[in-house]
# Entry
Amino acid sequence: MVKEYDLLVIGTGSAGSITATKCRKEGWSVAIIDDRPLGGTCSQRGCDPKKVLVEAAELIDWNERMQGKGIEGDSKIDWPTLMEFKRTFTQSIPEDTEEKFEKLGIDMYHGKAVFQSENELKVCSEVLKGKYILIASGAEPIKMGIEGEEYLTHSDDFMELESLPKKIIFIGGGFISFEFAHLAARAGSEVHILHRSENALKNFEQDLVKMLIKRTEEMGVHVQLNTPVNGIEKCGHSFVVKGEQEDRQVEWKADLVVHGAGRTPALDIDLEKGNVQRDKQGVCVNEYMQSVSNPHVYAAGDVASSDAPPLTPVATTESHVVVSNLLKGNNKTADYPVIPSVVYTVPKLSSVGMSEQEAKNSGLKIYVKSQDITEWFTYKQTNQGAAAFKVIIDQEKDVVLGAHFLGGGADELINLFAMAIRFQIPLIELKKMPFAYPTIASDISYMV
# Structure
């Protein structure tokens, strides 16, 4: 027997939940499907719990760099207790999400959804038919295609470790590797990052990345660039990672090997049977977030092939666009303002708007202000080891095009520059703005 709905939603994260909830409140019959605990990645296995863990690493760093400057006594991370604290934020999410959907009258299906036809999905033994289908299934670790790939631990599992191994290798030089490496090293592990190319954290300004790598190495993490990994072997309770450096074979031994080589849209759902086209970035959609090949289907978040990065605020924005277009007919297009991005290492690295190279390629008349600001009062007062900024300015319009920061508070500072870019605030107004002093924001007038 086929069950029919106005809307079928695959995924219970931000992109799926918003659309399901709003359509149900408008009287639509809605079913939502997930093969993992309800609530999505960000709140349970991603951004939020990661931030809880990273804050512990930051507290350790504060203590260490202020030793002998008014602070005495060591502190350390108690990993099992930290895990217990982290779970206070995540444990109730599946049950709370289920309760919310139940009160709204949204039918829930636990299992893997696959297309049966253009408007039908199969979940376990049940077939569901939808007038519309929203794909919001998020992302998953990219397949590396190396021997022994099955021995890799993914970020989801890393954040549930009951104890932290003595020696950890992270493969890949992206967000996951750097953020967790800083945490693990400050919790007492020996940590290595192996990255296949010359540039780690490739979407950030490389001169700031180099400063971060230097600081990362100073606190004990071994960062090895131009080191492609081609295999992993299990050796008793340990693992041997095989790679290349300067055309020679190199091996490392570790207790845990973590996948940090990036993520890809989670689209193993028989798209062909649903006549849903995709490319490397995800489901091919038009300006209304609707599939270009199947009008019954929309996509939002990490699975949509759009111009925006795979970040939670983007998923939220796209979900609201889908809601409007489902309820009112295609009337709203996705508008992506400048979106800040942060690497939660210690110190933090952040970016918004154009990079220096993008600005140069744009043909605009620009100038760049950049400086190592480790000796500025803001950073020297807490003995921070690395701090710098780079601001790209449109010389003719006298507005900010891009901003990039390394240092404590980089995550909040970048939001102020995101507003400056979006609303085209003239530099003279930024310079005149009387921010509270002394704060990180009060340094802005010296950065533009």
Observations:
- The radius of gyration is 24 Å.
- The first strand starts at residue 2 and ends at 10.
